[in-house]
What does this fold into?
Amino acid sequence: MTEPGPSHHHPLPDPNFSSSTSSPLSTSSNLSSSSNLSHSSSLSAPPLAYGQTRRRSLADVAHNVIIRLRAKKEAESSAHQKLRKQLPHPDEVVEPPIPGFTFVGQTGVIYVTQRATELGFHYENPDWANFGQGAPETGPIPGQAPKPTEIHLTPVDDEYAPVTGMKELRVKIANLYNIRYRKGKASQYTFENVCVVPGGRAGLMRLAVAIGDVNVGYFLPEYTAYEEMLTVFKKFAPIPTPRREDKQYKFSAQKLKKEISGRGLSVVILSNPCNPTGAIIEREELKGWVDVAKETHCSLVMDEFYSHYIYTHPPEENGRTVSAAEYVEDVNKDPIVLLDGLTKNWRLPGWRVCWVIGPKKLISTLQSTGSFLEGGANHPLQKAAMPLLDYEIAQQEAKAIQDHFRAKRDFVVNKLRDIGIRLAAVPESTFYIWADLKDLPAGLDNGLAFFEEALKFKVIVVPGIFFDINPGKRRELFESPYHHYVRISFGPPMDVLERGMSSLATLVLKFKATHGHIPESQHHQSSDPAAG
It folds into this structure.
């Protein structure tokens, strides 16, 4: 993979900046050999000429000491070492599963589920609260739209569906977007602008295969599945840009334009609404993003899977949805690509019926990439999805989701504040809360440690480091600025949220009684994404 130019990678230690060769912190030999943290062979500075000395600022020395202190603490942390066994260091040689194959690491969500399963979790176990789940509750909610409970099939439905999906379904999807977002506009979507895919990841993969030898921008923190997509395909160079907590994880169109021009980006990909922060780009700001993409000739790929989960309007306006489709001028010329599906916005994750919307020529390309990737979406379920795309049904479901999930959001936000967990920002959308742990006592104030302690109380959360998308593992995971965060999902039903929040409150109270109240962030300066 071509290494990108200047980017906001997180700082890594330079072993040549040790303040004393006799110091216990000056060499990697004092760290656990299993953790492979020092990077000394790959990060050493150029050798010095005879008699030459390296000038070091006080900040260099202080930074080096802090890095080594944190590394030592990682080596002593059981939570970190458990993850290390499942997540080998980039420099570590890993035995292949069978000859000719390579090791593929777990995603963060799979890791947390596996750890919970080792301790007795399963999806039917009523004792557990799964705040790590990336799907909404699928059962009945007040005011929901009707869902199909049976499908009438003919022998034709047993055949393969077209790689781009059933034409009738593609027409339905295009019409829904035109009614919602394109009233009075000359350029309208047709079935030729729609490609049905078997899940959001499948859509992303079809797109990734078609991306050329260019720079691809993405943002931090971001949806965990982007990491593998940005790693597997070696043609393009992924370049990260962190969003700042002190800006509520917003990113203006003006800054976007600077990023595109300054880094030479040809494609920008992001989730909007954002998983995991719950931030959203909408209205005039979203229009500005679309305009910048057109002006700079940069393709904008927007994952809109949470566009029904919007809370920025008054409750009486519930049912309002958000999409960049509203600001596209010419559906076949503007470089705007949208992904959505039944998974989140219709609360049907098991159906795996999703879609990509964009210019006709791109859809034709996705037909080609899909033909050798996964071959297309399930035929019978595409047929069953047809009535769900009727405008009235879609609006009914969106309103029910916003009524129900807004109340769940408010409940969890208030409980977390009562417990003493700070929110990086109150989510404006999605069903996730990006929780900052730095005010908790040492031992609970980093995501991995909090995750392991929560498991003891039968609660699952996702450590923030898993949303620090790190293609090719080019930087040290444990120096992530998101180490002190967790993602908490309010996707589960309310009774699960009540049980889980009660368990987290008990966890924090017992931990404070046993370990004291002083946050680790008061002992050592912690890394903060707002400084990125």
